[in-house]
Every structure is written in structure tokens, then in C-alpha cells.
Amino acid sequence: MDESTRNAEFDKRIEEGTKIEPKDWMPEKYRNQLIRMMSQHAHSEVVGMLPEGNWITRAPNLRRKMALLAKVQDEAGHGLYIYSAAETLGASREDLVHQLLIGKAKYSSIFNYPTLTWADIGIIGWLVDGAAIVNQTMLAKCSYGPYSRAMLRICAEENFHKKQGYEIVCTLMKGTEEQKKMAQDALNRFWWPTLMMFGPHDSDSPNSATLLKWKVKKKTNDELRQHFVNITVPQARTIGLEIPDPNLKYNEETKNWEFGEINWEEFYAVIKGHGPCNKDRMKARNDAHENGSWVREASVAYAKKKQGKKVEKFLNVG
Ligand code: BYC
Asked: Is the pTM above the cut of 0.70?
């Protein structure tokens, strides 16, 4: 089959909604776009452990500590599923991790903001995991089989994360004036960075057209952002929180909550490495990688020993 026939066959399969599996033929651009996006996603899960990990030792009670610990462990698991899914495309995990550690690979902008108070942990669970669910529910229907299946599992866990976050914020909003202020302050700091998670406006998104054509993305950045705002504004109002946006207003005709302009200069500065915590995050990941080198060495040695025994057994049988 020549290249153009293969491409046409591939496009037809996408059009019909058939899932693409690792051993199927796929255009190199499809493969590379998926590796780009999935590796960024896996890195985000791993770096995403850092802002919340910062509060594990300071959680206000044992119940909160256990839930936070479980959530952070879940994020590590999500990273592993997605790295594995990226490996099915021929990417090497070692190389992907290396790209992160040398500061070349991107990860979600949101994780470059600090967690200053306990309320930030509630707000992250509610907003950041809430935004992740909106994005990942779409990705669970994407055209690449291993990614879509990883998303199904991950979304189920993210739902629990969102609930634990919202419950923390609800508890604070039923507390003292100081606790209410703390929740409002956390919302003020995280609202706009959360909206940035969905990426640039559609008109400024270089990858969207290709990803939409191949049904990796099934909705645009702006569509998902709008959906997130529509579901989150009533949740904030119900518990007495104010969204920090003077331009926020409900449009009766479109049934959308219209919102003000995002600070795109801030967004691009953060993704270029100049956010408040980029350097700390990279240092923490590099330190963890170095401190964990003995685990990698031990696993390689164990695998080699096991492999050696298998060869020996094979030779003996032979
Ligand atoms: N941060 O053409 P565009 C989570 C980059 S949730 C950093 O629109 P695309 C978690 C983009 O990569 C977060 N970079 O890109 C939750 C591109 O750069 P390159 C992770 C961003 O791919 C709770 C350039 O800007 N989720 O992990 O069409 C707890 C132009 O953008 C961002 C995912 O990764 C950003 N916010 O759309 C713990 C979901 N936005 O690569 C963990 C999978 C854009 O061309 N990813 N950029 O140099 C996606 O759905 C899409 O990749 C995006 C961006 C919507 C993020």
C-alpha cells in the first residue's frame, strides 16, 4: 500500500470512530503528537505531586492526612499509566524523563504556583482536579486506545480527588471568619492559573487543528474552559465564595458564564520556565531522580539476574 492510500485508510478509521492500537499503522505526525501530549501529561502528574506533597506533614488531622497521602500516591500512579501508554508508541521512558529533568519537556503550568496555606489543598482538589476531569473525560474518548483506556481509570480517581478537595473548602466555609478568608484567598490565587490549564485560545493553539482532525481532542481548549467555568461558578456561589473576576456574568441566551480575559503574558512566562516555582519543581524532580538511582540500579541488577536464570534454565532443558 502506498503512503497516500495508507493515510486515507487511517483517516477513514478515525472517521468511523475505530480506536487506533499500538501495532496499527499510523502517520508519524499522529504518533509524535501523541508522544508530545502524553509525555507532557505524564510529567504533569508527577510534578503535580509536589505542591500537595508539601502539605502531607502539615495536614490538620489524621483523616485529612490519609486522604491527601492517597491522592498524591494516585497522581504517581497516573504518571506511570501514562508513561506506559506513551511507551506503546515506541517512546523510551528514560528519554522522556530525561527531557523533563533537563527542563526541555513541558508540564502543566498550574504546578508552578506555590501552596501557601491548607486551603490551597482544598482548592487544588476542587479546581485543578476538576479542570483535569473536564479535559480527561474528553480524552477518555480519544482515538488512541491505550491513552483513552488510561483516562477512564484516571478519571474515576480524579472524581474522588475533586470531592475531597471540595469537601475541604466546604468545611473551611462553615468555619471561622479566618478560615473563610483563607479559602477565598486560595480561590483568588488559583482561579486564573486554573483557567490557563486548558491552554491558549483556539485561535492561538498551534496543535489543536491536527489533534481535532485525528480525534485526539474532541473539544477545543476554549470549549472545555467554558464548560469548566459553567460548572464551577455555581459550586463557588453555593458555599459563599466569590469568583475573582469583575467581568463574570451569566448570559441567558447562550447559558454560559462569560468571563474576563486571561493574562496570557503570565501563561507564556510560566510555560517558558519563569513561573514562581519552576526552578524549585525542577530541583525537586532532579533530587528525587538522583536519590532514587539505587532503586533503578537494583531493579536492573535483579532483572539481569532473573534473565540469566531463565537462559540457564533454557540451556539446561535444551
Ligand atoms: N501548561 O497548541 P496548544 C494533571 C503548551 S492535569 C503548560 O493548545 P495542545 C493533574 C502546549 O503543550 C494537567 N503548557 O497545545 C491534575 C503547546 O506547547 P508545545 C495535565 C501548555 O496540546 C491534578 C503550546 O502550549 N493534563 O496532570 O493542543 C493533580 C500550545 O498549546 C499548557 C494534560 O496534560 C499548560 N496549561 O493543548 C495532579 C492533559 N497549555 O508542546 C495532576 C493532556 C498549553 O507545542 N493534554 N501548553 O511546545 C492536553 O489536553 C493538551 O495538551 C492541552 C494543550 C489542552 C494541555
From this structure: yes
